[in-house]
Design a protein that fits this description.
Number of helices: 4
CATH class: Alpha Beta
Number of domains: 1
CATH superfamily: Methylpurine-DNA glycosylase (MPG)
Distance between the termini: 30 Å
CATH topology: 3-methyladenine DNA Glycosylase, Chain A
Helix content: 10-25%
Shape: globular
Number of strands: 9
Strand content: 25-35%
Structural class: alpha+beta
Radius of gyration: 15 Å
Length: 173
DNA sequence: ACGATGATGAAC
DNA sequence: TTCATCATCGTA
């Protein structure tokens, strides 16, 4: 019996969900085949005040998805060549999302989307079992002392407060 | 160390 | 309509 993560998994505190996603598997169905990999690195983008988050610009056509219901994907193009895969968390009207930065088979957010073949068509889609992109709990538990917290990558522009927050979560080793 | 490459948001 | 900027990566 497979345990695909339900929408309520994402309707919790951003940092808790970011930590809990470590050790979970991302499932990508292409045709009859399935690609899966364990999540090893995440980053939290939490709330309208977070200057590193696109949502700090307010509600725009781009950020609208982050203000919506949890469990939806936010995918956008960065540096003109890499798609970033995020999943929206928290209750409706509270803008927050988690960036999937690394898998056991692909390290770096641009490589992640290349590896599981994500593009902007996934923006606004929901992570449910029948979707061709969702998350699964395979019973892997990551003990607390195996989780490393660090500042987020590539967000120096967000100022001394937000760029220094330990919102990045990595499995050690 | 740096260039590729395009969507976004803000200013004009 | 134009402009600076960017949640990165591969090559050097």
């Amino acid at each position: 019996m497979r345990k695909i993560l339900k929408q309520n998994f994402f309707n919790r505190d951003t940092k808790i969900v970011a930590k809990d996603l470590l050790g979970k598997f991302i499932i990508r169905k292409i045709g009859g085949k399935e690609i899966s990999a364990m999540i090893t690195e995440t980053e939290a983008y939490d709330g309208p005040q977070d200057l590193a988050s696109h949502a700090s610009k307010g509600r725009t056509k781009r950020t609208d998805i982050m203000f919506g219901h949890p469990g939806y994907f936010y995918v956008y193009l960065c540096y003109g060549m890499h798609y970033m895969l995020n999943v929206v968390v928290g209750k409706k009207d509270y803008p927050a999302a988690i960036l999937i930065r690394g898998l056991d088979k692909a390290v770096g957010p641009g490589r992640v989307t290349k590896f599981i073949r994500i593009d902007k068509k996934f923006n606004g889609k929901i992570a449910i079992p029948k979707s061709n992109l969702c998350f699964e709990d395979r019973g892997v538990k990551i003990p607390k002392n195996k989780i490393k917290k660090t500042p987020r990558i590539g967000v120096d522009y967000s100022g001394p407060v937000w760029s220094k927050k330990n919102f990045r979560f990595v499995i050690k080793d």
